[in-house]
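Researcher: Please translate sequence to structure tokens.
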Amino acid sequence: WWTPEDAKAYNERSSLVADQYSSYVAVDSVHLNGRLTLGENTADIGGLKIAYIAMEHAYASKTRDTVAGFTPEQRFFISVAQIWRENVRPTYARQLAITDPHSPGRWRIDGPLSDMPEFAQAFGCHAGDPMVRPENVRPQIW
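Model: Translation complete:
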């Protein structure tokens, strides 16, 4: 149902996602397979953007109180990180990197959030910081 131009644009953009995740190390010297995890990574990126927009809409007419020293935006990103906390043995991490179409929890956090300018703004991150990917390699799928 896509036009050839749409398919070409998607393939170019999704290659940035695949390359980004293929650069991540699961354990030891075993890298993720960005092509294997592409569908889930794309879903994580899109889902987080939509959830963030929904949160912003929910706060549009409310006071943005700081709670426990954190702004609503910071609390949003902290909650994302808490969802994907995990601890697996190296042997299992190696197996998952080869067979699982889902990225490990760490990269389901660091991957999408490092691509979101909203995250950088919420925590005062700047270009060159580990959680800020350069604009020219940030995937913009949708």
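Researcher: Any highlights?
Model: The CA atoms of residues 114 and 131 lie 5 Å apart.
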